[in-house]
Amino acid sequence: MMRAVRWSLGLACAVAACGGRARLEGADGAMARGGGDAQGGAEMLAGAPSGGAATAAGGVSPATGGAGSVADAGESSSGAAGAAGEGASEGELFASVNPGSCTSLHLDLASEALFYTDSTTGTVARISFETGKEFVLASKRPHPTLLVVGGDYIYWLADDENAIYSNYDKTPLISTATKITGLALDEPNQTLYYSTGAGIRGYRLYDGYEFQAAVELGGQRPIALALLGGRIAFTAQPSVVDLARVDGALPVSCVDLDNQRCLRAGTNVMAVLYEQIEALDNQFYWAREGTLSATELADGLPTHVVASAHAPADRIVSFAIANGTAYTSDTAGYLQATPFGPSPHGAARVITRAQPAATQLVANAHYLFWTQQCEIWRLRVQ
Questions:
Q1: What is the CATH number of domain 176-280?
Q2: Residues near 354 by Cβ (< 8 Å), separated by ≥ 6?
């Protein structure tokens, strides 16, 4: 599964023990928070499986007194929302990043660790699921935002530079004069894709060859990206959701649509969540206003609604897909889990309510993570 993050949304294990050492290393000389080396002496963040408390040096503070499970937080989406100030939450506080002064956190997952970028401090780091220990891969970088993880590598966007870096390189892999708005990784073919106002470009990691993959004409600007069945799924302003075939041929022009190289799932779609699109199990997922839709990669691109925002919210602001469940955050401060399958979707379960909107959600087979301001929260889902 590949994400455009925000959201790349289960990739292969990116952090694994190898002869007693952490395999993922940073170009800056990786540092493990809280003392000790990368594999030993880990201090625990509260809410980690051991439940131990810790002090942590630098940007990640110990998560004190995780929220645990709140009985009335698991209401149906049709239940009462609760008055302001009566917020409730399932889950636990996993980490607090640069408390009080973070401006933008972005998340991604591998099988054993959470990865994040903090644009304020310029930090790129991972946190182990089991120990809660932070491992800094890069620091004092220029405004890191979007990120994707694959194998031993993490790639992120330095937004101030319009450049893409990896944890093994101090100089950028990609640099462009136009603003980069989306990032996705084709791990099997070792290719990064990124979107700009001029279209979608690819960069082959094994030989450094860069190429134009798709072009949106008529003033449409590709933004978020995801990979699906040999196609790039993407949102584009204004009001478009497209799929362009990635086949190594000439760049795809998605102004003249055909069933072979470019397909359109939606046009003149108002209030699209341009910043996110996800792909999983031959479907891609995208949001508009208060609904989350799934579009199948099949004849006619059949589309159906898989989740909705909790009333009175008018807009979904972030989502994640895992285990046949759609997790959605909305403008009313609700975070919900909605099982889906054949339409209509199942009843939603409220995870948080009357909370600051979760601006980043990522999930895999076992965990859901989300951000609230400078905090990262975690819920074990299986």
A1: 2.120.10.30
A2: 81, 82, 83, 84, 85, 86, 87, 88, 333
